[in-house]
Specification:
The complex is a heterodimer.
Chain A lengths: L1 H27 L5 H11 L6 H10 L6 H13 L5 E2 L4 E2 H36 L4 H15 L2 H15 L20 H10 L1 H27 L2 H8 L4 H7 L1 H11 L1 H19 L4 H11 L2 H29 L1 H10 L1
Antiparallel strand pairs in A: 1-2
Chain B lengths: L1 H19 L2 H10 L2 H18 L1 H4 L20 E4 L2 E13 L6 E24 L3 E10 L20 H37 L1 H16 L2 H10 L7 H32 L2 H8 L4 H38 L10 H5 L5 H6 L7 H22 L4
Helix pairs in contact in B: 2-13, 3-5, 3-13, 5-6, 5-8, 5-10, 7-8, 8-10, 9-10, 10-13
Classes of the chains: A mainly alpha, B alpha+beta.
Chain lengths: 333, 375
């Protein structure tokens, strides 16, 4: 078991390392660097930067060195938790994204909790009452969830609330009066009130998938002879279903977190842009447009780390609830 | 007596049909039973007919903008003029709102603009073969009021219907190209992985795991932001296709690998080996035909992801950019919710996206069920 955990852990580290290289290379791809973008920006406002000044800027940010030196420098800074300067904001990256990373995690976790909280009963219902009207309804809803890209769902919700309820400010995570305040119970409660909508928009597509898995697994379990045995012994239908087949069907259900997490985190980026949520999404977008190497690279890397950690945690949960994995791994290694 | 024999005879006839049917015939028979998938297939065929005839179906030059006609509401077709069948649209007359000084357009029932089939319009190259200026629909007359905007106009006064036709063309084709790209990568790497196993398999599987654990949307955003704005449009298309391909290959690689692994131990492969068939012959003559149908199903199911990816990226302004016209580019104008509230037709391009994605999903499900002999 310990072996298994160590192996998963090492695989996670390897993934993070690969992600750091990918993040760095990807940010380096566009021709020109931050200084070129910065100069163009200054020129549009009328200021002209001399060649010497530009070179000085390049040296200051280490942009004059070969790419692998830049990477090693960057990786070294990352390891020490120093994410460099967000050039556009002229503040340390850490300060700029600290709060936003937290909100990204909160929104993603809320979406996953919502997915599970809704998908479990719906999946059970759809399997037990197969081919009922309710089953068809949820299947239909699931297909809509899969077919409508979540940014479009966000747009449609925004439009509907604007048109029919005349709500202007449906986006965002906080009411205007809490925006500038520091964290307090009142602010947390305010956010909790704003969370369900983005969580639902983010979660609908994932939920459809999870309901499908739960329904299929439970249907398989319900056909097994032990269910008939339990019923023949006089247990009530509800008790039979909840006590045995549902538990057995829970396993693949729990393993869905492994792919739900990257899926939800990545969806949150684009949904945040539409709903103007204060997550890292809008910031990543701006950083990419401005070619801010440190900021964009850090965000990409942190998001990768977030998903790796999420997957690792899901592996642990799965191991904890499924003795077959626990003992199977012990036997193997 | 003879009445009793007949159904039995029929049964043997149909059984004989099954015995001699090819694999593809069997699949077609199974697929035919899947009503929803049949409807989806029809819709997708319609979409691709639209792709081929996009310029013919459009009636207004999609690039010509006119500030005067900005954000005009859709003009519905009226089929009857009194009692006679004469399709027409109401012309629009503009008045200045005395309060806001904005130009407000109202349909004017007195101004009837008759529609014409195969009307002359802007010039284009039909199927890239010959130049023509015929379009399915059009209006006669050259007055400024003689216009049709079946779906209204956008912010720059361009006809949304015509733009939607061309957007469908680009979005569907680029989705196909993206799938082709990921299919190539998926079959190559998945095949290598399944064929050689061992260390090769291990490395490729780790690679897939790494690619999958990086959140996709930020990665595409970063990749797409790397496309310089100064690039010629064909190069941008190619690069976006490449980005789309990077998304899909892991799933396809896993399907191919799984099939290879399960088929490697099948009796007929062993039999072919014993009969002295070469490795290439075993793969292409014996293994590929038996999982080709699965690949086709998996590819169909991968297409919606491509379409959604392209639409999302272009919506953000990171994918295809004007003058290219795609669903995402059209939806970019819907980013401003105030504009959408005043002119809801800006959201119409969302409908073909949803319909296409749904249809590909149903078609893929149907194909997968039809391809699975044990389902």
């Amino acid at each position: 078991m310990v072996n298994y955990i160590i192996r998963r852990f090492l695989a996670g580290i390897l993934t993070i390392w690969a992600a750091s290289i990918i993040s760095f290379v990807v940010i380096q791809l566009p021709p020109g660097d931050y200084v070129t973008a910065y100069i163009a920006n200054l020129q549009s406002t009328g200021t002209v930067l001399s060649r010497e000044e530009a070179d000085a800027l390049r040296i200051q940010y280490g942009l004059d060195q070969p790419i692998y030196v830049q990477y090693v420098k960057w990786a070294g800074l990352m390891l020490r938790g120093n994410f460099g300067m967000a050039m556009e904001y002229n503040r340390p990256v850490r300060e700029v994204i600290g709060d936003r990373m937290t909100t990204t995690i909160i929104v993603s976790v809320a979406a996953i909790i919502l997915i599970w909280a809704l998908a479990l009963p719906i999946g059970i219902y759809s399997a037990v009452r197969q081919y009922s009207i309710g089953d068809y309804f949820f299947t239909f809803l699931g297909f809509i969830g899969i077919a409508v890209p979540n940014f479009m769902l966000a747009l449609i919700v925004l439009y509907a609330s604007f048109k029919y309820f005349n709500v202007q400010n449906i986006g965002g995570l906080f009411s205007p009066e809490y925006l500038q305040q520091s964290w307090s119970w009142a602010k947390a409660w305010d956010m909790a009130k704003h969370l369900p909508l983005p969580a639902f928009i983010l979660g609908l597509a994932g939920m459809a998938e999870v309901v499908r898995i739960m329904r299929a697994n439970l249907l398989d379990e319900l056909r097994k002879p032990y269910v008939v045995t339990a019923q023949a012994k006089g247990l009530s239908r509800n008790r039979v279903i909840m006590k045995y087949p549902v538990r057995a069907a829970m396993n693949p259900f729990a393993s869905t977190i492994g792919y739900l997490f990257p899926f939800v985190v990545s969806g949150s980026i684009i949904v945040s842009l539409v709903l103007s949520l204060p997550t890292v999404g809008p910031m990543l977008f701006k950083a990419l447009v401005a070619q801010d190497l440190f900021l964009a690279g850090t965000i990409l890397l942190l998001l990768s780390i977030l998903t790796v950690v999420g997957t690792f945690v899901s592996d642990l949960i799965l191991m904890w609830i499924d003795p077959r994995i626990r003992h199977g791994m012990e036997g193997q290694s | 007596m003879s009445v009793a024999i007949e159904p039995q005879e029929q049964e043997t006839v149909s059984a004989q049909r099954i015995f001699v049917a090819t694999q593809w015939q069997l699949m077609w028979w199974r697929f035919r039973k899947h009503k929803l998938a049949m409807i989806a297939a029809a819709i997708i065929i319609l979409f691709y007919v639209g792709v081929v005839f996009a310029d013919f179906l459009a009636y207004a030059d999609p690039q010509i903008s006119e500030a005067q006609r900005s954000l005009l509401p859709p003009q519905p077709i009226h089929w009857y003029d009194g009692d006679t069948f004469r399709p027409h649209v109401f012309g629009l007359t503009g008045k200045r709102d005395p309060k806001t000084f904005k130009r407000v357009y109202q349909p004017d029932p007195n101004l009837k603009v008759p529609l014409k089939l195969f009307a002359e319009g802007y010039e284009y190259k039909f199927l890239g073969l010959f130049k023509t200026n015929r379009h399915l629909l059009g209006v006669e007359g050259a007055r400024a009021e003689d216009t049709i905007f079946l779906l209204g106009t956008d912010l720059q006064g361009r006809d949304l219907f015509s733009r939607l036709m061309l957007a469908t063309q680009l979005s569907m084709v680029i989705g196909l190209a993206g799938v082709a790209m990921s299919l190539f990568l998926g079959i190559l790497l998945g095949g290598l992985s399944g064929l050689y196993g061992g260390a090769v398999d291990n490395i490729i599987q780790r690679m897939i795991e790494i690619v999958r654990s990086i959140p996709t949307i930020p990665l595409w955003m970063a990749l797409a932001a790397a496309v310089p704005t100064s690039w010629p449009i064909t190069r941008v298309y190619f690069f976006i296709t490449l980005i789309l391909g990077i998304i899909g290959w892991t799933t396809l690689a896993r399907v191919v690998r799984g099939r290879f692994l399960s088929l490697r131990t099948e009796d007929f492969v062993t039999a072919a080996e014993l009969a002295g068939a070469g490795q290439m012959r075993i793969i292409f003559r014996h293994m590929v035909p038996s999982f080709l149908s699965h690949i086709i199903a998996a590819t169909t199911l991968a297409l919606p992801a491509m379409i959604i990816a392209e639409t999302s990226l272009s919506f953000l302004g990171l994918g295809l950019r004007a003058p290219a016209i795609s669903w995402g580019v059209l939806l970019q104008q819907a980013q401003n919710i105030q504009a959408v509230a005043l002119s809801p037709w800006l959201l119409y391009p969302a409908i073909p996206v949803i319909v296409a994605v749904l249809a590909f999903n149903f078609l893929g499900d149907g194909l997968r069920d039809a391809a699975d002999p044990y389902g």
